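We emphasize that the prediction below concerns an isolated chain of 98 residues; any contacts that depend on oligomerization or on bound cofactors are therefore not represented. The input was used exactly as deposited, without trimming of termini.
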Amino acid sequence: MTKQSNNPPVDHVRLGAVQAAIWRNIDSEGRARYDVTVEKRYRDDAGEWHSTNSFGRDDLPLLSKVTDIAHTRVFELIGRDRGKESTNSSIRAKAVSR
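Result of the prediction step, given as a C-alpha cell string:
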C-alpha cells in the first residue's frame, strides 16, 4: 500500500485480497491522527501482482468487514496514545511536585 508519508503504516488489516493500511500522522498540535487506505490485490494473466482501489459488487461485504476492523483498530490505537499521554502527564506532575 502506498501513501505519501515517510513512515510505514502502523498496522494492517487483511481479509482475502482486501487490505487496509492504518497510517499515524502527527498534527500541528502534536496529536496523533489516523488515516486508512484500502486496496484489493490481484494477479494479472501474466502472474504479476497489482493493486486497485476499485471494488466490485462481490467485494463489498469483505470491504465492509475490513473497514469495520480497521475502524476498531484505530480506536484501540487512539486509546493507547491517550494512555501514553496520561502516563507521561502523571510522570511530569510527579517530577514537578518534588
